[in-house]
Amino acid sequence: LATGSQRRNFELKSSHLGALFGCFGGKVVCADDGLFERGRGKPHPDIFLVAAERFLGREVGMGEAGESAVSEAQRAIRAKGLVFEDGIPGVQAGKRAVVWVPDANLVALGAEATSVDEQPDATLKSLEDFVPEEWGLPPYDS
Predict the structure, then answer these.
(1) Has the keyword Iron been applied to this entry (predicted)?
(2) How far does Cα 131 stand from its chain's mean position?
(3) Torsion of CA 88, 90, 91, 95, to 10 degrees
(4) Nearest-5° angle of CA 135, CA 40, CA 7?
């Protein structure tokens, strides 16, 4: 889980949702964890890249996808990523295979986005609407 929230605020907001956030087993990157350069929060991809490397063991490199420091192999690994995001800066940060699960108040803002980098690949009203098979993932167990 990669959140732009400060660690203290994340813990306050999620403490009553232990059943949900416990599924992540403490694999949470917050904006103030010191794991990426200050000022490189969303819409920069750094927080997602740190989470992928640190918690998933993926060698995705750091920096924007178009930068020369990012190899073709790293770009290929990034292209397999799937980000669930509730805000436009997060969609911009995670743009590779993005499923936007917006706050109802943000849906209209998404329609106004003009840049390809701001457009999600899919928009869901709820995470319950997610069909893993549509993204090359195995189906949920019945």
Answers:
(1) no
(2) 17
(3) 150
(4) 80
